[in-house]
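Quick log. Single chain, no ligands specified.
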Amino acid sequence: MSVISRLREDVHAARTHDPAARSNLEVLLTYSGLHAIWSYRVAHRWWRDPLLRLPARALSQFTRFLTGVEIHPGARIGRRFFIDHGMGVVIGQTAVIGDDVMLYHGVTLGGKSQGTGKRHPTLHSEVVVGAGAQVLGDIVIGRGSVIGANAVVVHDAPAHSVLVGIPATTRSATTAQPPDEDGWLDPAIYI
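-> predicted structure:
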């Protein structure tokens, strides 16, 4: 895929995920999460060459200064990844992120150990992580799962889960709840 095609795909993903996006030009010029992802891609390419690891880290830190988003160049990130609002997002070195994943501001994909090896989470494709959520350790979050705002996730979750709370508990996203007598759904199932 060419660089221009990838940029177009990223802008389209941003417009798909953010109803406030009014134009491609606005997204291209003003979305800090998108700028952080583009910088990450350059840094990640450099990171794969052992001689360029210091410049890769320097670029990631400079991008953190500019955007408020810290993505370690060693992380592996799929296509159409979108960070909404961006500020305060941290993605650790051994994190793995699938395609069509969306993070809100303040999310941490962090480690729980000082050891070497895989110590950050793996998010399968189509995962959404709410604002302020902390996903910690070498855990796997299944495809299509949703992590609620401010949840602290420290255990694996199967596909299509809803994770909420501190520590997060897992609910099935397919569990349907009928509306109450006034026609309202319990908002707790969507948090």
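The two ends are 37 Å apart (CA to CA).
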